[in-house]
Write a structure and sequence with these properties.
The chain is of the alpha/beta class. It has seven helices and nine strands, in the order βαββαβαβαββββααα. It is about 35% helix and about 25% strand. The termini are close together.
């Protein structure tokens, strides 16, 4: 089986729960560390799937790897190679396919409820989940590309996820582990303090206090989404 390519854009935002999920199922994957200078591949067909993780940058920034990633994403769609994006990754897929990434009305940082849309595509992806507490860390949001089905929303961000066939873009984070949350709270403490007036920003202490109670359900949601997504991967 061809490996899944997982793109990391900053050292603290790796695959998290997804790595263990794939390893348990003996699905091969390769980390492409953009933050460490790894090049963006030119051909999506050498992989069984492409996963784009988060990052503090904007997809609208003038960074040399962004146009290359957009070209690769469009190549993956043309070749029917499944795409999966988390936060920045979801925004990158959205922009590549014709969506617009712009400032969200407020920053969302920390735990917050998302609601699953009432449509058949959402039920295919989320099963019996009607809502859950997701982890958020974003100041921008995406519009839906042509042909996308809306899957998730929150009180402060209308577009939290969409799907087109095998492809899934998420604004929220389902990949979180306790270690990742702790690391983000360390490196992002200044950002949290600066945004504390937002109604959707928790303190670093509150994020960590809620972590043990929230993570088990978030892991179950992630397992459901990743299980559905790898059906497309194993078809390759």
């Amino acid at each position: 089986m061809k490996p899944i390519a997982i793109f990391r854009h900053t050292p603290t935002e790796g695959p998290g729960y997804l790595a263990g999920f794939l390893d348990e199922r003996k699905i091969p994957w390769r980390l492409i560390a953009i933050d460490a200078g790894d090049a963006v591949p030119q051909d999506a067909s050498v992989y069984s799937g492409l996963v784009f993780m988060g990052g503090p940058m904007s997809v609208n920034d003038d960074l040399p790897w962004i146009p290359r990633a957009e070209t690769l994403i469009r190549d993956a769609v043309a070749r029917d190679v499944p795409l999966l994006g988390h936060c920045l990754g979801g925004q990158l897929i959205s922009k590549s396919l014709g969506g617009v990434v712009s400032r969200n009305p407020v920053k969302e940082i920390g735990w917050g409820e998302v609601k699953v849309a009432n449509n058949d595509v959402a039920r295919d992806w989320f099963g019996d989940f009607k809502n859950f507490q997701a982890f958020h860390w974003h100041g921008e949001t995406f519009s839906l590309p042509q042909g996308a089905t809306h899957l998730l929303s929150s009180a402060h961000c209308a577009n939290q996820a969409w799907a087109i066939g095998k492809h899934l873009a998420l604004q929220c984070h389902v990949e979180m582990t306790a270690a990742m949350i702790s690391a983000w709270c360390d490196v992002g403490a200044g950002e949290v303090e600066a945004a504390k007036a937002s109604p959707a920003v928790q303190s670093v202490g509150e994020m960590q206090r809620q972590m043990n109670a929230m993570l088990p359900e978030l892991n179950r949601v992630a397992a459901r989404l990743y299980s559905h997504w790898i059906k497309g991967v194993t078809d390759q």
